[in-house]
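re: the backbone from monday

yeah here it is again, tokenized this time
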């Protein structure tokens, strides 16, 4: 079993730790937390707890949380580190990983240049085979790559034009906003366009991003210019062949992100997560060489199966299709929820 250390146990780290613990070819060697808060207390029931450096040990001792060591010790106890620390911190940690000769996965908050490759399981799994440093692209970029990649494979995509309506922050965060404003990105394209190009080889990508006061999901309005015409039915068939995308209908009540996330709660998903990208069937529209659709992205969880597959690619544990299938099966990703 490959030993996986998780450095940073927040929104993404705790979910990656859980997903790794569901696999039979890898296990969690431990997780790093900086604060001895309620999350650390809950995590200590299941995982070995480490701290970034020895200075933090006393705080954890005082809170009655047993720790196994510092980041250096976690590195000794692991074969790969999944770095889920806040944006920019991964860049600082890279030097430590290189000095200690441990392989690492970074998240989408880091610049693409931090790693040898950026990763999306559908669009470019093979580019991370055998690599030491890999970056799983952001939740938004993962959402776009997931639905565009099957269409690109079957019909060819010349141009992507996407408007990203972004959630303001995650559900457990009371410190960020906006809470009463709409905040557009003031640069064309937004940073998502070059990011998408790191995993999906489409010549022309334009994106604009707008932050709105919600915590549930992002919504993307996508317009593709196709090489070969794809009807709405063709697109839906292509997505139906991939379990990490599912096509839903607004007609049975799932007409907004509120009901989509409610569905995830109702079906008893871990942490009420929705790993799949939900595309509204009614929105899929084909006209000439254009294909348009609207999709919803659960930002807290869509990148989680990607991290598991990135580990398998780096360590050549399984080829692309088998890894995706194994991850999907273990996490209950079945393609059609209801
Ligand atoms: N949230 C999303 O929707 C989302 C989606 C996709 C990708 N990402 C990316 O994933 C990465 C992590 O984001 P996140 O949302 O999970 O952040 P987060 O919820 O703020 O969690 C970050 C975690 O890192 C820990 N941490 C802080 N400083 C640390 C240090 N010096 N050493 C070790 N751990 C440290 C924090 O621990 P304490 O709690 O103990 O301080 C916290 O648990 C970022 O690159 C982000 O861009 C985020």
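seq for it, each position gets an aa:
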């Amino acid at each position: 079993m490959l030993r996986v250390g998780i450095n940073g146990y927040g929104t993404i780290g705790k979910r990656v730790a859980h997903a790794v613990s569901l696999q039979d070819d890898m296990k969690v060697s431990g997780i790093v937390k900086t604060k001895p808060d309620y999350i650390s207390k809950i995590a200590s029931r299941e995982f070995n707890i480490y701290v970034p450096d020895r200075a933090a040990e006393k705080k954890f001792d005082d809170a009655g949380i047993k720790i196994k060591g510092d980041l250096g010790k976690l590195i000794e106890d692991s074969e790969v580190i999944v770095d889920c620390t806040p944006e920019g911190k991964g860049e600082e940690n890279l030097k430590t990983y290189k000095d200690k000769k441990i392989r690492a996965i970074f998240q989408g908050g880091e610049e693409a240049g931090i790693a040898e490759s950026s990763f999306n399981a559908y669009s470019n799994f093979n580019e991370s085979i055998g690599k030491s440093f890999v970056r799983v692209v952001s939740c938004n970029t993962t959402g776009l790559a997931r639905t565009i990649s099957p269409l690109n494979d079957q019909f060819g995509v010349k141009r992507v034009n996407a408007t990203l309506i972004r959630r303001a922050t995650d559900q457990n965060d009371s410190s960020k906003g906006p809470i009463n404003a709409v905040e557009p990105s003031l640069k064309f394209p937004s940073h998502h366009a070059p990011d998408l190009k790191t995993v999906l080889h489409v010549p022309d990508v334009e994106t604009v991003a707008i932050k709105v006061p919600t915590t549930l999901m992002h919504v993307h309005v996508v317009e593709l210019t196709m090489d070969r015409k794809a009807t709405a039915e063709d697109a839906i068939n292509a997505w139906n062949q991939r379990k990490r995308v599912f096509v839903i209908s607004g007609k049975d009540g799932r007409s907004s992100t509120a009901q989509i996330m409610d569905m995830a709660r109702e079906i008893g998903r871990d942490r009420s997560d929705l790993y799949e990208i939900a595309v509204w069937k009614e929105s899929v529209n084909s006209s000439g060489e254009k294909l348009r659709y609207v999709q919803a992205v659960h930002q807290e969880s869509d990148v989680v199966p990607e991290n598991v597959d990135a580990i398998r690619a780096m360590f050549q544990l399984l080829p692309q299709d088998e890894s995706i299938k194994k991850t999907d099966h273990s996490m209950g990703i079945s393609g059609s929820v209801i």
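The mean pLDDT is 97. The chain is about 30% helix and 25% strand.
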